[in-house]
Amino acid sequence: MKSYARQRNAEAASPYTPVPARVEEAVKLTDREMFFVLTMPAPIDHTPGQFLMVGLPGYGEAPISISSPRCGTRRVELCIREVGNLTRAIHRLGQGDILWVRGPFGRGFPVDEMERKDILFVAGGIGLVPMRSLIKTMLNKRRSFGRLTLLYGVKSPDEILFKEELKEWKRAGMDIRITVDRPHPGWDGNVGVVTTLIGPLRVDDSKTVAVLVGPPVMYKYVILSLGNKKLRGTEIYLSLERRMKCGLGKCGHCQINSAYACQEGPVFSLADIRHLNEAI
Ligand SMILES: Cc1cc2nc3c(=O)[nH]c(=O)nc-3n(C[C@H](O)[C@H](O)[C@H](O)COP(=O)(O)OP(=O)(O)OC[C@H]3O[C@@H](n4cnc5c(N)ncnc54)[C@H](O)[C@@H]3O)c2cc1C
Ligand code: FES
């Protein structure tokens, strides 16, 4: 296996050629999401917010965010929601199976520039997947950052991802506030959309950076609420989801006016995309 992996890795000098990643763990997190631990043929270095093109022969390829922290090893963690042909096939995989991957691609969060800042994470649903990579990277260097606050909105309590880790992050000093869209039997926490958590929050606009990952509909309202907290566009980062094919700035599938989300994004500062029609 080792020499085969090495050979595949050499062949994969082209960014269009996928390499085999071995599934080490495949764990059901919710009705729709599965968590995968992969071993890559060679160590990869990624920035939180970057993605892999993940594929299976006969089913195609799709962009999937790396959910593990920056580490420079062969281990990669993904969390995949079953929504179509490819993701349904990936959900059938188990330990020892092979996923074909290219990347990492795209521009992630400027982690180093965020040092010494208070970070306000605002996640909606599966948006916690790429955000987990950033959160865990920051928790690994906890003293380099100020206050870490996570506002997390989901439709219902059974959609909350990484439940055990949320408790760990709380123990590590994060302020975590979760809300569900509608009242639910047994749920005694906050009810309402994620913006309802922003109003009561104390935000120091002189040293806060906000990180937003969620469905497009969330961004408009969260950005308005953050504007009320006097946060500037240069201090707000968000990840934009677009249909992607090549991941390499060639096919144009991910184009937002003049910007290619696969290359200049998926992470943009709000200041960078304000002038782009239909970005949000
Ligand atoms: C940067 C990035 C990171 C991502 N990270 C993750 C991740 O970490 N985990 C995860 O689960 N998903 C992630 N996604 C989403 C994932 O790539 C898509 O859900 C992918 O399309 C799934 O492929 P599929 O073949 O299973 O489903 P598809 O057959 O592609 O269908 C997926 C959904 O998209 C709709 N759809 C299909 N074709 C089109 C079209 N042409 N235009 C508009 N809508 C269409 C379908 O109706 C369906 O609801 C990410 C996407 C991007 C851009
Ligand atoms: S996915 Fe092909 S140009 Fe972006």
Q: What can you see in these coordinates?
A:
- It is a single chain.
- The protein folds into 2 domains: 2-105, Elongation Factor Tu (Ef-tu), domain 3 (Beta Barrel), CATH 2.40.30.10; 112-239, Rossmann fold, CATH 3.40.50.
- The chain is 20% helix and 30% strand.
- It is globular and about 50 Å long.
- The mean pLDDT is 93.
- It has 280 residues and is α/β, with parallel strands linked by helices.
- A 7-stranded mixed β-sheet has the order 10-9-8-7-11-12-15, sandwiched between helices.
- The protein has helices at residues 2-11, 85-91, 128-139, 163-171, 216-228, 270-273; strands spanning 19-28, 33-39, 51-56, 60-65, 75-81, 98-105, 118-124, 148-154, 175-180, 190-191, 208-213, 236-239, 255-256, 259-260, 267-269.
- Bound molecules: flavin-adenine dinucleotide (FAD) and FE2/S2 (inorganic) cluster.
- FE2/S2 (inorganic) cluster is lined by residues 244-247, 249-254, 260, 262.
Keywords:
280 residues; alpha/beta; Elongation Factor Tu (Ef-tu), domain 3; Rossmann fold; 7-stranded mixed β-sheet; 6 helices; 30% strand; globular; binds flavin-adenine dinucleotide; binds FE2/S2 (inorganic) cluster
